[in-house]
Amino acid sequence: MFDPSEISYDDNGLVAVVIQDWTSGEVLTLAYANAEAVGKTVETGELHLWSRSRDELWHKGATSGNTQAVRALRLDCDGDALLALVEPAGPACHTGERTCFHRGDVDVAAPHEALPALERTLAARQAERPEGSYTVKLLDDPPFIGEKVMEEAEEVARAAREETDDRVDEEAADVLYHLAVLLRSRGRTLADAAEVLHGRRG
Predict the structure, then answer these.
(1) What value, to the nearest 5°, has the Cα angle with vertex 76 and ends 75 and 78?
(2) Phosphoribosyl-AMP cyclohydrolase domain: from which residue to which, for each copy (predicted)?
(3) What global pTM score does this model have?
């Protein structure tokens, strides 16, 4: 249980806040909060911060509409840094980028970024429906998606029995792609399945 009294504020009355996407795990922003901002966050369920440049309380997204619903607040071991797990209503960065960390080695994809990127691509294909898209073809034919999931599952099982580790990886990736499309066709995501897994822990 989060206890605001355990926060260790710095000499300026601030604590660093790492803001992380609840669903994808992507780090969105590094910001700061004072006791008032933390209190408002707990009270409203939406992220409030302290703007060091404007020297005022800052309701994240109040002007742009890109608010951030807080799902969990966590403290680090020393109590001098806060992790806010949020569901963003839009881009986190004032530039319009999804995350403030969009400069530097952005072409080097970390493993945990693959599935969220896939789901964003699927959402775009579903909305834009580009001609000749294999994803759109699958989305338009739910029975075919089911057949492909079964086919790819058999292929990864066969690869595990008879083929190299690289082939297992490739076939597993095919399963994940087709499963994500199947879920998208039902208005669901891999994150929804992950919630079920969390409920089965232990």
Answers:
(1) 110
(2) 30-102
(3) 0.81
